[in-house]
Amino acid sequence: MKRVKKHIDFISTLVSSKPIQLRALLKTASKEQLDTVREIIHNILLGNLSISELHKQQLIKYKCTFRKIGDPKKRPNRSLFVRNSQALSKLLTIVFPVLKKEV
After folding, report:
1. 14 and 36 in contact (C-beta within 8 Å)?
2. CB atoms < 10 A from the CB of 40, how many?
3. pLDDT tens digits for the chain (103 residues)?
4. Of 92, 102, 97, 93, which is closest to residue 37 (Cα–Cα)?
5. 27: Cβ–Cβ under 8 A, 6 or more apart, which residues?
6. What DSSP line would sit under 81-95, residue for residue?
7. Contact between residue 95 and residue 40 where contact means Cβ atoms under 8 Å apart
């Protein structure tokens, strides 16, 4: 969670940005910022960050994408983040209030 604390402003910017801006932010994000997003996804997959069943149903169509990005053994490349910016936007919009409470 230290990494999330450090990059909470970046995550907030991702949540509030429009799709074109989101893609640009992901293209120019640092390695550590992308690792922060990956860590958030990994924690959701492990159940460390809880989200409601309704939100889980909304995200179910992106489950393969989240598994690819959230896998700690493999480092996803930047293009995977950029290609799936819509899924990341939806996920971060759902998770951001939870993150803000915990941080």
Report:
1. no
2. 26
3. 788 999 999 999 999 999 999 999 999 999 999 999 999 999 999 999 889 999 999 999 999 999 999 998 888 899 999 999 999 999 999 999 999 888 7
4. 92
5. 78, 82
6. HHHTHHHHHHHHHHH
7. yes
